[in-house]
Amino acid sequence: MRVFISAFICVSLIYNAIIYELGVLDVFLAVVSSNFTISYFSRIRFVDKMSSLAILFYCYFSMSFLPFTHLVPPIWNTLDLTHIATFGNKIYFVVISTIWLTELFQKKYFRYKSFANNSYHISDRQVKLFFIVTFFLSAISYVLGVSVMGAEATVLPFHLSGVLHNYRVIFAPLFFMLIIENKILNHQKIPAKWFAWFIVWCLFESFLRISKSSLVYGMLPTALFMLFYYKPPFRKVVLYFVPFMFVAVTVYSIIGGMRGAERATVDALVDSREEASKKEYSPEWGDPVTGSFNRMFMTAWDYREDYGVFDESRMFDFSKVPLILVWKGTARYRTYMLHGKSESGFDSDGTTGIIDPLFWGGYGFCYLCLFLLTILAVIFENKSKGRLGLQIFCALIFWNLIQKGIISWILNQNLIIAYVVRIVAVYLIIRLNYKYKQKSNIVVVK
């Protein structure tokens, strides 16, 4: 698998450099990046490098992958793809070269040792309480109108809206994964009903929030943990994946209809679904597969809209910083200042971890931020090696940073609270699963 992945990436980088007639420097960077990719992928364990690979794969799939596969809407032209291929080639080089050099450095100067885990025993009663609280908070949030997609945000006193939202979206999925790892570290059997309850809750959340992604993102931490811990054969992965995809596609279709339904009736839902099916293909988004992919990896989409506002002759350009500060982040700056949309609307043009620093300080500042973020990811990988739950926690945090924004979150109170929740989850998994102050029940990890 790693041979196929590295070969695919290398071919696509060199293909883009040749077909889109990029400059000599870009061709050189593509060749060097390909060599680094082959060298690095041939000697790593993916599970130990999840945080840095999350950054690398996001940079690749959100930029260079699109000009190579043409998985883009029909209104994108060759000039758009050339700009995307050029910028994508550079950011991929920055990340893969940083990973490759840090790997070379740490291999020379650092050695890893085995360590012991002291794990707290989470009882069945505590797990039951977790599910009761989680279902209850989801129901309360629905009644109060908190975190309903496409609707006006409900503001509760004492930041309770943010507390409810972050518990459901971030804390509950991570804490369930913590429970699963805790049972494994304590050599206890995991009841099948726990997985059933959690899947039901994820479905419950999808319909309450009218969110197409709740099912996937809710189950992602636990799914990653089970995949990397048990390492099932490919046939078994497919056996579980196919039914899940069937359910996910069904939920996706139903929720797509729910968003447009005027009344809470079956007939209204059917009418809305028929109307939505007529709009599934559009010149702006393309077919459903293309549209869904570009919504997940929004960097190329955002860059295509705005690459004309960046001065390519200047590596560092901080001229937009004052307005970004006024609008409290690049997402609001792009939506209301740059694109002129009304502040009364519910939609935002958003930002990503690549577009965000690009607006703050130009191309050079973007490369610098990616370099520092990758270094930070490597450091966290080294600190969490051998502790699978913590590795997945860290990888999801870095994925969120590269997907949602590296800098602008510090200007948004809701995003600050969201990262505080993630830090609390990290603290809990370290405290309960690895460093519980108890002399007995020690699990040695090699």
Pick out its properties.
446 residues, 17 helices, 2 strands, disordered C terminus
Give me the secondary-structure topology.
Elements lengths: L1 H18 L4 H18 L8 H20 L8 H32 L5 E4 L5 H21 L15 H26 L6 H18 L4 H17 L3 H27 L5 H13 L9 H9 L2 H8 L14 H6 L3 H9 L16 H30 L3 H17 L8 H21 L8 E4 L1
Antiparallel strand pairs: 1-2
Helix pairs in contact: 1-2, 1-3, 2-4, 3-4, 3-15, 3-16, 4-15, 5-6, 5-7, 6-8, 6-17, 7-8, 8-16, 9-10, 15-16, 16-17
Describe the fold and architecture.
With 446 residues, the protein is mostly helical. It folds into two domains: 2-111 and 299-351 and 353-404, no CATH class; 116-260 and 434-445, no CATH class. The chain contains 17 helices and two strands. It has helices spanning 2-19, 24-41, 50-69, 78-109, 124-144, 160-185, 192-209, 214-230, 234-260, 266-278, 288-296, 299-306, 321-326, 330-338, 355-384, 388-404, 413-433; strands at 115-118, 442-445. Strands 1-2 form a two-stranded antiparallel sheet. Helix 6 runs parallel beside helix 8 (214-230), helix 8 (214-230) packs antiparallel against helix 16 and helix 9 packs across helix 10. It is globular and about 65 Å long. The model is unreliable at 262-266 and 440-446 (pLDDT under 50).
Short description:
This protein is an all-alpha fold.
Number of discrete helical segments: 17
Rounded to an integer in angstroms, the radius of gyration calculated over CA atoms is 23 Å
Q: Approximately what portion of the residues adopt beta-strand conformation? A: under 5%
* Low-pLDDT segments, ≥5 res: 262-266, 440-446
* Number of extended strands: 2
- The termini sit apart by 25 Å
How many domain modules? 2
Strand order of the largest sheet: 1-2
Helix content: 55-70%
